[in-house]
Amino acid sequence: DTIYVLNGPNLNLLGLREPEIYGSDTLDDIAGMLEDRAHDLGLEVDVRQSNHEGHLVDWLHEAQAEGAKAVLLNAGAYTHTSIALLDAIRSIRTPVIEVHLSDPMTREEFRHVSYVGMAAVDEVKGLGAQSYVVALEKAAKL
Ligand code: DQA
Fold it and tell me: Which Enzyme Commission number(s) are listed (predicted)?
């Protein structure tokens, strides 16, 4: 089974970007951690990143079309703005788990709303890079 790991805007700069908030691991580092854990769990991961909202919508549709077991979605700032992502998650049967490195609820008020969270089956946040690994373990159990 394959788990799609979809990452939104600015996550290509992980490791450089506000490391005091997001940590020093790059997205490639996280992809490596996920590949190792997926191997142990008998799963495969397909890790992608885009700064473009529509790409994330297309990849959610693709996850369903390709029969992915689940999607881990860190939609970055689109989490807090994107009705299109909310609708896309509602448009597929593939379960989506919301992921964040930081805990948006402890940050600025504009991060307190999550459109992704309105449709996701679960969420993992505030654990840094480990958030992705914990989310993968949850996806394995779905
Ligand atoms: C984030 C939290 C979002 O509020 C922010 O816009 C991001 C990263 C996180 O992983 O902590 O880009 O999704």
Answer: 4.2.1.10
Q: Distance from first CA to last CA of the chain, Å, rounded?
A: 12
CB 97 within 8 A of CB 71: yes
Asked if residue 77 has its Cβ within 6 Å of ligand 1, the reply is: yes
Reduced to 3 states (helix: H, G, I; strand: E, B; else coil), residue 99 is strand
Task: List pLDDT tens digits, range 36-64.
Answer: 999 999 999 999 999 999 999 999 999 99
- Tell me the Cα Rg of the chain: 14
Closest atom of ligand 1 to CA, residue 11: 12
Q: Which amino acid is at 102?
A: S
Indicate whether this model's pTM tops 0.90: yes
Determine whether the shortest distance from the Cβ of 104 to ligand 1 is under 6 A. Answer: yes
What does the pLDDT read at residue 92?
Answer: 98
Q: Does ligand 1 lie within 6 Å of residue 130's CB atom?
A: no
Distance 21 CA to ligand 1 centre (A): 9
Ligand 1 atom at shortest distance from the alpha carbon of 102? 11
Where residue 127 falls among pLDDT bands split at 50, 70, 90? very high
